């Protein structure tokens, strides 16, 4: 490949020649712009380096003439596409760069430069990375200088560039070629249509939601203004004047994602055709979520199950009867659907498996059908998010003068049978076993302590390093001979915790210790002190009453510190 080196300094031409020849390039020299244009008119040249300040025609004028329509026709037979031009100069000012890019420069190299720097720049222009070959970018700016600069960066990545000088022109291009455009780089302030309006119309009118749109703006990058650009659908933002290397780095990130999106989209389209028949056949019998797994695991269509450790969740609404009495049937149905829809979305976000709805109750589990090593942590995170969602609906109901909506949740970790249970014609992917029953009992046991999230000891052992909990009791639930240690989950371990509440919990824990040692007076003292810090702490109220009862009517010597729950 041939490179034309143009500079009035013999020494500089010699330095450039030596480095470029090491890269295997053939070098032709010229001492001035006039001679350079003569050579370009008669010889196939692949790249030009230009000095800025030369006698006769300077570098800027030379580049302008080279980029003129008349001259480009003259060299069309010698060079396919736009001829790369690199300015090599010791006076690399912002004014020089603006004038150079306006004239049609591809890039600038500042003297003195490091050994290998020129060769790397030339290689990037003549042999761009083929990684992004085949991708197309739309460059939108009312400044030809800025468009030239951006196009030069895109060419280094091997990307085809389409230019538009305002938002209206860009929108027409997107209307006709939008599906073939992989990335848009746009100015904000432009005549006819601004960049933010262009972005909004691309997202809303053309429904092109996955095309990355990078904003470049010379206006002050106030956070509020930048936020508006993201609100209309922008993907990234870079203020002008920008550093070329930063633009290049950001482009590579977005284009990498675009390539992955393309690959995934292609695979998805192929898989969709393959799976369409299976989905149509199965959707009448199993839930849509389960179908996706069945497509990859057809063996799971067989009846039967396997024993494995799961974390099981039961939820229920406290006082649903009184809620239903205060709402008309249609309003009740709308509220219930909103509630179950929100709860289910949270469940799916945390990769839980929905077993079934039982009226206003939800049964779910983790670690099946796909293995999840941290299933207990996932379940507790889900429960906390569910309770927050439930409180938001409850507040709205209370503001309307209606009874509050209180969700109670029970979690247990243990071995159960999970699989397809039913007949050969109709079955459900569900769970059976004593550990599932315990989760249901814990949900109901919340009302004994005025709590909303109760977990078993087996779950607590797996999550206690990640969540702040307190022991509630050694509970004998219905159907269980041995007592089970149960805990209340209060918050995530990394969340801020009120010091006053921390003090109350310390007193509560000392009260629990005294209770289990039959030290009723000490227990009364600790729980009374705890309630002085938080008069509404229901577990402290429960234990204060118990200690007073035990003090007046002590249990027998066989008492093991447990409490028997007779409710389901």
Tell me what you see in this structure.
With 568 residues, the chain is an alpha/beta fold. It is built from 20 helices and 19 strands. The chain is elongated. The protein starts with a strand and ends with a strand. About 1% of the residues have low confidence.
Give a topology summary.
Elements lengths: L1 E5 L3 H13 L3 E5 L2 H10 L4 E4 L8 H9 L1 H7 L9 E5 L4 H10 L3 E4 L6 H10 L9 E5 L3 H13 L3 E5 L2 H11 L5 E5 L7 H10 L8 E5 L5 H9 L4 E4 L4 H39 L5 H9 L7 E15 L1 H6 L3 H21 L3 E6 L2 E6 L8 H25 L6 E17 L4 E6 L1 H16 L3 E4 H7 L3 E10 L7 E9 L6 H18 L3 H14 L4 H15 L10 E2 L4
Parallel strand pairs: 1-2, 1-3, 3-4, 4-5, 6-7, 6-8, 8-9, 9-10, 14-16, 17-19
Antiparallel strand pairs: 11-13, 11-14, 12-13, 14-15, 16-18, 17-18
Helix pairs in contact: 2-3, 3-5, 5-7, 7-11, 8-9, 11-12, 14-15, 18-19, 19-20
- Write down the CATH class of the largest domain: Alpha Beta
Shape: elongated
- Helix/sheet category: alpha/beta
Q: Give the total of beta strands.
A: 19
The CATH homologous superfamily of the largest domain corresponds to Nucleotide cyclase, GGDEF domain
How would you classify the quaternary structure?
Answer: single chain
Share of residues in helices: 40-55%
Count, helices: 20
Q: Could you report the average pLDDT, rounded to the nearest whole number?
A: 87
Taking Cα atoms only, what radius of gyration do you get, to the nearest Å?
Answer: 36 Å
Q: Strand portion, in percent?
A: 15-25%
Largest sheet: 9 strands, mixed
First-last Cα distance: 85 Å
Unreliable segments of 5+ consecutive residues: 281-287
**Judging by the overall fold, what is the CATH architecture of the largest domain?**
2-Layer Sandwich
Count of domains: 4
Q: What is the fold-level CATH name, i.e. the topology of the largest domain?
A: Alpha-Beta Plaits
